[in-house]
Write a structure and sequence with these properties.
With 134 residues, this protein is mainly alpha-helical. It has helices at residues 3-13, 17-29, 34-41, 45-57, 76-89, 108-133, and strands at 61-63, 72-74. 63% of the residues lie in helices and 4% in strands.
């Protein structure tokens, strides 16, 4: 399936706050089952299952059965494709090389905020790498 054909499904799937929270949780914690996700997010397992069904249909998460347990995880390739879709529609045409539409928005405080966001993301990446290596 073409990335362009799937982009509307991706945006539809990400239009619900609970699904964003599920993606963030899976990104930070790795593979989790429905009950674990429900406990952390604070919604019923049935609601989590429905949200995961939509995220899976959009190709953003995947699951593999391990006996009775079905862990869900982020599809890293799909998330990268999602980033590419967003980059393609970016109004400034930066292809993710910048975060600002024009120089008027560029300020020291906004750069410092962006630096903190990147540092947090880098911590998360290093943590995931160390977890995978175990």
């Amino acid at each position: 399936m073409s990335l362009r054909l799937n982009s509307s499904e991706i945006f539809k799937a990400l239009s619900v706050e609970s699904r964003i929270r599920i993606i963030e949780l899976l990104k930070s914690k790795g593979s989790l089952g429905v009950k674990n996700i429900a406990e952390v997010i604070g919604i019923t397992p049935a609601a989590v299952s429905q949200h995961l069904k939509v995220l899976k249909h959009a190709g953003l998460v995947r699951s593999t059965r391990k006996g009775y347990w079905i862990p869900y995880s982020i599809d890293e390739e799909a998330m990268e494709n999602c980033r590419i879709v967003v980059d393609d529609i970016c109004r400034c045409g930066c292809k993710s090389s910048c975060r600002f539409e024009n120089e008027k928005q560029l300020s020291l405080s906004s750069l410092e905020k962006y630096k903190k966001e990147l540092e947090k993301e880098m911590k998360d990446v290093k943590k995931r790498i160390s977890e995978i290596k175990k």
